[in-house]
Amino acid sequence: MPDHQEKEQPRRRQARGERRMAQLLEAAAAVFCTTGYTAASTNAIAREAGVSPGTLYQFFPNKEAIAIELGERLVHELRDTYGEALAPVDPATPLEEAVGAAVDRFIAFNCNHPVFFALMHGPDIPGRIAEEHDALHATLLSRIAELLSSFLPEDTPGADVTRTAQMVLGVYKAGLELVLAHEGAEREAYVQELKDVLVRYLAPLVGPRLGRPAGTPATTD
């Protein structure tokens, strides 16, 4: 057999394996969203993927391994998302525009990957996913605080910046749960409510540093 054919065979096997793994992870995401992690089973995941349990076990020894692989991939993608969503803001940017752009990116991620919320915020997530979530939360909180520091008054104490970042993240997570519980126009309405809440909270803290003097309403007639 020619050398190029010998090299192509492992590549094709690897490509098939990657496609099969992606198929299994997509099926697992659907099952975890429908039943929750605890009630999910490898048989249900294999059935959703249209493969035999034996095929699934060639890639994953159990459902925890599937959840961990899925969680790690989503965490990596989310880190890319908040790298874009929490990029430095031009001081001339209106507050509602800055808040809206960040919220839209995070909401889009969670709507495209509803299993992320199911895995990261469920009561029964595997230990390694819980550790990933804690690390992600700490990093995200740090990024929000860093962004807030760039447009809050310069004499704002660090403890106040951290508290404000905690509130922003807490409000977002509470709003996200409501957003994901609705669809269509009602979902869009909840997204707008979430943006309005964050803008009204931040507006008096930001003052003239981001597009509007202190006390000015978020919208005008």
Task: Write the SSE topology.
Blueprint (H helix, E strand, L loop, with lengths): L2 H33 L6 H8 L3 H5 L5 H23 L9 H18 L1 H8 L5 H25 L6 H23 L3 H23 L15
Explain this structure.
By secondary structure, the protein is mainly α. The protein is 75% helix and 0% strand. It is built from 9 helices and no strands. The protein is elongated. Mean pLDDT is 87; it is low at 212-216. This is TetR family transcriptional regulator. GO terms for molecular function: DNA-binding transcription factor activity; transcription cis-regulatory region binding. Residues 18-78 form the HTH tetR-type domain.
In short:
This protein has 221 residues and is mainly alpha-helical. Helix content is 75%, strand content 0%. It is elongated and about 60 Å long.
- CATH-assigned homologous superfamily of the largest domain: Tetracycline Repressor, domain 2
Characterize the overall form.
elongated
Largest sheet report? none
The CA-CA distance between the termini, in Å, is 76 Å
Gyration radius (Cα, Å) is 22 Å
CATH class of the largest domain: Mainly Alpha
What is the chain-wise order of helices and strands?
Answer: HHHHHHHHH
Total strand segments? 0
> What is the CATH topology classification name of the largest domain?
Tetracycline Repressor, domain 2
Q: What's the CATH architecture name of the largest domain?
A: Orthogonal Bundle
Q: What fraction of the residues are assigned to beta strands by DSSP?
A: under 5%
- Count of individual domains: 2
Helical run tally: 9
Unreliable segments of 5+ consecutive residues: 212-216
